[in-house]
Automatic annotation (TrEMBL):
It holds the Pfam family Peptidase_M41. PANTHER family: ATP-DEPENDENT ZINC METALLOPROTEASE YME1L1, METALLOPROTEASE M41 FTSH. InterPro entries: Peptidase_M41, Peptidase_M41-like. Residues 1-133 form the Peptidase M41 domain. One of its GO terms (biological process) is proteolysis. GO terms for cellular component: mitochondrion. It comes from the Eukaryota. GO terms for molecular function: ATP binding; ATP-dependent peptidase activity; metalloendopeptidase activity. This is Peptidase M41 domain-containing protein.
Length: 155
């Protein structure tokens, strides 16, 4: 979930970066698991959200002021040069986030693939079942399918 400006008022830099990483997750996951040529347009909102958080953190809250300076102002109130610096800082933040998320998802590839396979097969998993799968254990449960108003159990 993308935090709004009021939620960001009391957020630490670490938490802001975590929100950016979460927003980048869908795009990175599609790139890793589907391939760069199979990324869907659905990730556009993820990237927009990550960008919005990064811009607010830089421009409105001065969280990344090392290069840009500690100024809080809207884009329209600043020079082209300053806006260019903000854009570069936001790109740096997003690039670093991308790399963190790639490393994380690659390190958890087995777990992600197993969860994905089980979700495909069973349609839903509860927290206990997900925990078992993440730990490398198999789950056994009935798969219920409905067809023409009747329920069928597939084992």
């Amino acid at each position: 979930m993308i935090p709004d400006e009021s939620e960001m008022l009391s957020m630490s830099k670490e938490k802001v970066l975590a929100h950016i990483d979460v927003a980048m997750g869908g795009h990175v996951a599609e790139r890793i698991f589907l391939g760069k040529d199979s990324i869907t347009s659905g990730c556009g909102s993820d990237l927009k959200g990550a960008s919005n958080i990064a811009y607010q953190a830089v421009r409105r809250f001065g969280m990344f002021g090392e290069e840009v300076g500690y100024i809080s102002a809207d884009k329209k109130d600043n020079s082209e040069y300053y806006n260019s610096m903000v854009d570069k800082e936001v790109k740096k933040i997003l690039d670093e986030s991308y790399e963190r998320v790639v490393k994380l998802l690659q390190s958890k590839e087995r777990e992600i693939r197993e969860l994905s396979k089980n979700l495909y097969w069973y349609d839903y998993l509860d927290a206990e079942e997900m925990e078992k799968i993440i730990k490398g254990k198999k789950i056994k449960k009935e798969k219920v399918r409905e067809w023409e108003g009747e329920k069928y159990i597939v084992k």
